[in-house]
From TrEMBL, chain A:
It is found in: Periplasm. The lineage of its organism: Bacteria, Pseudomonadati, Pseudomonadota, Alphaproteobacteria, Hyphomicrobiales. Keywords: Signal. The keyword Flavoprotein does not apply. This is ABC transporter substrate-binding protein. GO terms for biological process: peptide transport. Residues 1-22 form the signal peptide. GO terms for cellular component: ATP-binding cassette (ABC) transporter complex; outer membrane-bounded periplasmic space. Residues 83-435 form the Solute-binding protein family domain. Belongs to the bacterial solute-binding protein 5 family. InterPro entries: Peptide/Ni-bd (IPR030678), SBP_5 (IPR039424), SBP_5_dom (IPR000914), TAT_signal (IPR006311).
UniProtKB/TrEMBL annotation, chain B:
Residues 100-315 form the ABC transmembrane type-1 domain. Keywords: Cell membrane, Membrane, Transmembrane, Transmembrane helix, Transport. This is ABC transporter permease. InterPro entries: MetI-like, MetI-like_sf. It is found in: Cell membrane. The chain crosses the membrane at residues 102-124, 136-162, 188-208, 246-272, 292-316. One of its GO terms (cellular component) is plasma membrane. GO terms for biological process: transmembrane transport. Belongs to the binding-protein-dependent transport system permease family. Pfam families: BPD_transp_1. The keyword Membrane applies. PROSITE patterns: ABC_TM1. It comes from Phyllobacterium pellucidum. It comes from the Bacteria.
From TrEMBL, chain C:
This is ABC transporter permease. The keyword Transmembrane helix applies. Its main location: membrane. The lineage of its organism: Bacteria, Pseudomonadati, Pseudomonadota, Alphaproteobacteria, Hyphomicrobiales. The keyword Ribonucleoprotein does not apply. Residues 72-260 form the ABC transmembrane type-1 domain. It comes from Phyllobacterium pellucidum. GO terms for biological process: peptide transport; protein transport; transmembrane transport. It is a multi-pass membrane protein. Keywords: Cell membrane, Membrane, Peptide transport, Protein transport, Transmembrane, Transmembrane helix, Transport. GO terms for cellular component: plasma membrane. It is found in: Cell membrane. Pfam families: BPD_transp_1 (PF00528). The chain crosses the membrane at residues 12-32, 77-108, 120-142, 193-217, 238-259. Gene3D superfamilies: MetI-like.
């Protein structure tokens, strides 16, 4: 097969044709009956201290918890508004933006046998999402109360107009429902059920062996008929970077998500018989490779210098060599995947070192006797292999235009402290996540006036009144098209003024044994409920 | 009280000042680190707003000064409480007992393997210093000594677990296998072969060399010469006299290496995905979990002290001139 | 060249290899000019495939040979300086403890023991995460974990030297006690500590490699450890990336050991 799968579309086409060939051979995939039972062993990612997705809405938590605790709706490739119903069967926002009505699924029970009702949703929304959840505190900032006219209707009431578009886009991430009867009257953040999860999902929480594994077991009373198909899911923790690939090859695990198999090893592993590489299934959690800039530094406060840095970066090299094709060049804070908000027509900065040098000369930073114009402190985030590699590349790219970038490498806590609290950096390499709506975790990178110490936010000393106004207006614009228009305007402004430099957008790769079926069938697959996954015996 | 227990208690009491220095030192070291447990938490769980951050810092005592925290820690410790692990959100006293036995098992097996095979090969090399056999073993052991343990581990995995599929890739036992008794022991044994080998190799080489070098010296001693003159057989002299005397410095080394081996387990455990103490230590540092790290360092110091006590006892058994409790 | 004559075959071999390595380190900027981290070719070129990159290139297209040569510099620099720092600190502490005796001895030796009961590698790991990795902090972190052995050895030697005639003579001459300690005793006690040098250098090289493996290498410099660490993600598909620096590492550690043993043996031969 092709050596490198260049993009998702090409990949999908390739699998489709492989399927077609198989069908001609008389054994069409579609014709195959799913087999129930069996255990799926997955490479585990991290061991979060708090596994409750209603409190900690992060991918590390969702990866495990999404099988146990369900949101009101999940993303889908073909559903209306890109959603498919889970605990809610329908949703509607009022024209004034002051309320949102959810019809809830009937006949759903919690893992301990009690019935799921609108009271659980009301409790989760008011006590957990709004008060405790990292993202919910933004999305449900103006949530005032929740009406429950009957057991299967929940009406969210807002004190200020809140765009329903935002609520809808945020549903998969921020609306994990937890049981009221277990949490009510307790210290929610410290409830033992934050580890021993109780939900409505297709799998029940089985066992947690610290340092070894999580074990999830089939929920026989799941509301979706004939699902789940698997008996057990095991997440085995493999701290070493080479471990997942080895374990897959040795058939000791069957699936590694979130690029647990390093990109560099994919070319080889894709040729191993019995293994399959999936480049899709992560569109709903796109990561962005960006260069953060400290505008307090006099050279960097100069737009020409920022433009020069943008012109010095070869996006093609980044995509092809660092990400081995598993990424896309990007021009702004919204990924091209999001058709609603993406604005293609923005200022672009072609790879042009000569122009970069000219801009730096214009700005008055000539090369000195040693060939250097000035020195920058570069802090690559230690989160991914690729951020470090891009850091190494950026240092070389900047050296070519006469900027001496010295890499400062820190471990995770020291990196966060240096960048977001102490502002002790000049430029960084960072990877913010785009979560289906700019208001969830993207505008915070541009908005000014945030207190020091808030991670993954504008701690860059950058303030732009126009951008601030766009963000503020969009927060209360109910009309979906108008709201999208404001964010498109924001992208144009950001691309022009370069508060930070967007380089690429990337997501992850799943590698699985070819016996595992229904992999990557929705845009948040790794963090969805896997109720239809099965393993060919 | 049995003499062994009272000796152990005496040693530990004597070590109290040392333990105190260790604790204060490690505490200060981690306090000097940039970023705290909340920074580490946020990196894993996504961003929090300023209010939540402040609340979390207050809850974990991070809003107060280091002096306050140390006092609180020391007070609790005096009452036998090891504190609260911020990374695992459980008491340190519950986290450590899950991990320590695994590393102790790994270390004991690796030490035993390294000691017996290392000194056996040392005897073979040292039986005739300068021979081809000696030169071969000497250079080979040096080469082994120069191979980083993690590298050896990675290569062993590729050969024995991935290509040949004789042994598991990692972990301490098969997951939720329901095995018990001998089946479970066998399962754990199979999981431990590669990590024990990777950890033991460097010490095996070390003990081989120590044994061989010391034997080389003993051959020159007058008492050996006179044994030879009396016409006693070569191998009898080797085993009864030369090797027997040469093993003493190796035994001393066993105790000294206990701490080093604990350090080596950090890397080996992460290569082989073993939920042990070394990996926990690295995790505690990375997540700025001061109480957990202090608990780990305290336990590893006690482990080292006990290991040295055992070595001293063994030494007394081997060398009649030394009495325990000296 | 008395020393050379006294060396045995193994020792001479070690000396030759080490000299060659030091030459490599010194000549690196001439043999491979420019920044060894510069991206100079196609990524993942195999060794011997392209004359411009005799040992191939890595994931980003950096020349492996240039990395190897410049890596010799940093690796040896870190190893020698951290061994030297460990020896110096250790022997000063050992001399003071042995010479002063009493409370000072007790305090210094408790501190030494405290360092010894904590795994040296763990200490180095903690120290490096506190300071952030760079060449000076690597030297610091490695010596923090390794100085205690020199301290113990020196102290034992000082204790036996303290009562010797020449020390008594210095006392009667009215020399300051500290002067006696550092001018008369330390030089004599340093010998046994220096015999640890070979082990210390070899250990430092291995610790640096292990720290790099865990992600704590100086990002602005190449070391063999960092090359191995970067190469290991492609261990299966491009094994040369970790084997080439790995061989360099083994050869160096071997040479240091051979020379060290050769030296200590020749010392022993001289009465």
């Amino acid at each position: 097969m092709s050596r490198i799968i260049l993009n998702r579309r090409a990949f999908l086409a390739a699998t489709a044709s492989a399927g077609a060939i198989a069908a001609l051979g008389g054994k069409g995939w579609a014709a195959e009956q799913p087999v129930k039972g069996g255990r799926l062993i997955v490479a585990g990612d991290s061991e979060p201290a708090n596994l409750n997705p209603a409190i900690v809405a992060s991918n590390g938590v969702f990866f495990v918890a999404s099988k146990v605790i369900e949101p009101l709706a999940e993303q889908s490739y073909e559903g209306k508004d890109g959603l498919s119903p889970r605990l809610a069967t329908s949703w509607e926002g009022s024209p004034d933006g002051l309320s949102a009505t959810f019809k809830l699924r009937e006949g759903v029970t919690w893992h301990d046998g009690k019935s799921f009702t609108s009271a659980d949703v009301a409790f989760s929304a008011l006590e957990v999402w709004k008060k405790l959840q990292n993202l919910g505190r933004v999305v449900f900032k103006n949530l005032d109360s929740v009406d429950t006219p009957d057991d299967h209707t929940a009406i969210l009431k807002f004190s200020q107009p809140t765009p329903f578009q935002l609520i809808r886009n945020a549903l998969p991430v921020v609306t994990s429902v937890v049981p009221k009867h277990i949490y009510e009257g307790t210290d929610i953040a410290k409830n033992p059920a934050n580890q021993q999860l109780v939900g409505t999902g297709p799998f029940k929480f089985g066992e947690y062996k610290p340092g070894e594994y999580y074990l999830l077991k089939r929920n026989d009373a799941y509301w979706q008929k004939d699902e789940p198909l698997l008996d057990e899911i095991v997440y085995q923790f493999l701290p070493d970077r080479a471990a997942a690939g080895n374990a897959l090859e040795a058939e000791q695990i069957q699936l590694a998500a979130f690029s647990a198999v390093p990109l560099a090893d994919l070319d080889r592993i894709s040729k191993v018989p019995g293994l399959k590489v999936y480049a899709n299934g992560y569109e709903g959690l796109t990561y962005q490779l960006i260069v953060e800039i400290n505008h307090r530094r006099k050279e960097l406060a100069d737009l020409k210098v920022r433009q020069a840095i943008a012109h010095a970066i070869d996006h093609d090299f980044v995509v092809k060599t660092i990400f081995l094709g598993y990424a896309k060049s990007s021009s702004g804070p919204v990924p091209a995947y999001d058709k609603t908000f993406f604005e293609p027509d923005v200022t672009k900065y072609a790879f042009d070192p000569a122009k970069a040098e000219a801009l730096l000369d214009e700005a008055g930073y000539k090369r000195g006797a040693d060939g250097n114009r000035f020195t920058l402190k570069l802090l690559p985030a230690p989160f991914f292999n690729e951020t470090k590699q891009f850091g190494n590349y950026l240092r070389q790219a900047l050296a070519k235009i006469g900027i001496d970038a010295q890499i400062v490498s820190n471990d995770t806590p020291a990196h966060l402290k240096a960048v977001y609290t102490d502002h002790d950096f000049d430029i960084t390499v960072a990877t913010p996540v785009y979560r289906s709506d700019p208001a969830i975790s993207t505008t915070i990178l541009f908005e000014s006036g945030l207190p020091a110490g808030v991670p993954f936010s504008n701690q860059y000393g950058y303030a732009n009144a126009e951008i601030d106004k766009l963000i503020k207006d969009a927060a209360s614009t109910i009309d979906a098209d108008k709201r999208a228009g404001l964010y498109k305007e924001l992208q144009k402004k950001a691309a022009h003024d370069l508060p930070l430099i967007n380089v690429a957008e990337f997501s992850f790769i799943t590698v699985a044994r070819d016996s595992v079926q229904n992999v990557s069938d929705n845009p948040r697959w790794a963090v969805s409920n896997w109720s239809n996954v099965w393993v060919k015996p | 009280m049995p003499p062994l227990v009272s000796l152990l208690l005496k040693r530990l009491l004597g070590a109290l000042p040392v333990l105190a220095i260790v604790l204060v030192g490690s505490f200060l070291l981690l306090e000097a680190a940039s970023g705290d447990a909340v920074d580490s938490y946020v990196a894993r769980s996504g961003t929090l707003d300023a209010e939540q951050l402040a609340q979390l810092r207050q809850e974990w005592g991070l809003d107060k000064g280091p002096a306050y925290r140390f006092k609180a820690y020391a007070t609790a410790l005096a009452q036998g409480d090891l504190g609260w692990s911020t990374a695992y959100q459980r008491p340190v006293g519950a986290v450590i007992p899950e991990r320590l036995p695994i590393t102790l098992l790994l270390m004991t097996l690796a030490t035993t393997l390294a000691f017996f095979i290392g000194s056996l090969l040392g005897v073979i090399a040292g039986a005739s210093p300068g021979s081809l056999r000696d030169r071969f073993l000497s250079v080979t052991s040096l080469a082994i000594y120069a191979v980083p343990g993690f590298w050896l581990g990675l290569v062993l995995i590729v050969i024995f677990a991935v290509d040949l599929r004789w042994l598991p890739v990692g972990g301490i036992e098969s997951i939720a296998s329901g095995k018990s008794g001998f089946a479970r022991l066998g399962d754990i044994g199979a999981h431990l072969i590669l990590p024990v080998t990777s950890l033991a190799m460097v010490y095996l080489a070390l003990y081989l060399r120590l044994m061989r070098d010391r034997m080389g010296e003993i051959w020159h001693e007058p008492f050996v010469q006179s044994l030879r003159a009396r016409g006693i057989g070569h191998w009898r002299i080797v085993w009864r006299h030369v090797a027997r005397n040469a093993v003493l410095p190796v035994v001393t080394m066993l105790g000294l290496q206990a701490a080093a081996m604990l350090g080596g387990s950090v890397v080996v455990e992460s290569v082989f995905a073993i939920p042990g103490f070394g990996r926990l230590a690295a995790e505690a540092v990375a997540r700025r979990d001061t109480p957990l790290l202090l608990g780990i360092i305290l336990c590893s110091a006690i482990t080292v002290i006990v290991a040295n006590l055992l070595v001293d006892l063994a030494y007394g058994k081997l060398d009649p001139r030394v009495r325990t409790g000296r | 060249m008395n020393a050379w004559r006294n060396l045995n075959g193994e020792g001479r071999m070690g000396a030759v290899i080490l000299t060659a390595l030091i030459l490599m380190a010194l000549l690196a900027p001439i043999l491979a000019p420019g920044d060894p981290l510069a991206i100079s070719g196609e990524p993942l070129l195999r060794p011997f495939a392209d004359a411009a990159h005799p040992l191939g290139t890595d994931r980003l297209g950096r020349d492996v040979l240039a990395g190897l040569l410049h890596g010799t510099r940093t690796t040896l620099l870190v190893a020698f300086f951290s061994a030297a720092a460990a020896l110096i600190v250790g022997s000063v502490v050992g001399t003071l403890a042995g010479f002063l005796g009493g409370i000072a001895d007790a305090i210094l030796m408790r501190i030494t023991e405290a360092f010894q009961t904590v795994p040296g590698f763990l200490l180095a790991l903690a120290a490096i995460s506190v300071t952030g990795p760079s060449v000076p902090t690597l030297i610091f972190a490695i010596s923090v974990g390794t100085w205690t052995q020199a301290a113990r050895v020196t102290r034992a030697e000082v204790l036996s030297l303290r009562e010797r005639d020449f020390v008594a003579a210095a006392r009667t001459l009215g020399m300051h006690p500290l002067e006696i300690a550092f001018r008369e005793i330390l030089p004599n006690a340093f010998g046994p500590a220096a015999s640890l040098a070979a082990i210390s250098v070899a250990a430092a090289i291995l610790i640096e490699a292990a720290l790099s493996f865990l992600g704590f290498g100086d990002p602005n410099r190449v070391t063999w450890g960092s090359m191995i660490a970067e190469g290991r993600t492609v261990l299966r598909s491009a094994p040369y990336l970790s084997i080439v620096p790995g061989i360099a590492l083994v050869v160096t550690v071997l040479a240091v050991h051979l020379l060290g043993r050769g030296l200590s043996r020749s010392e022993r031969l001289q009465p």
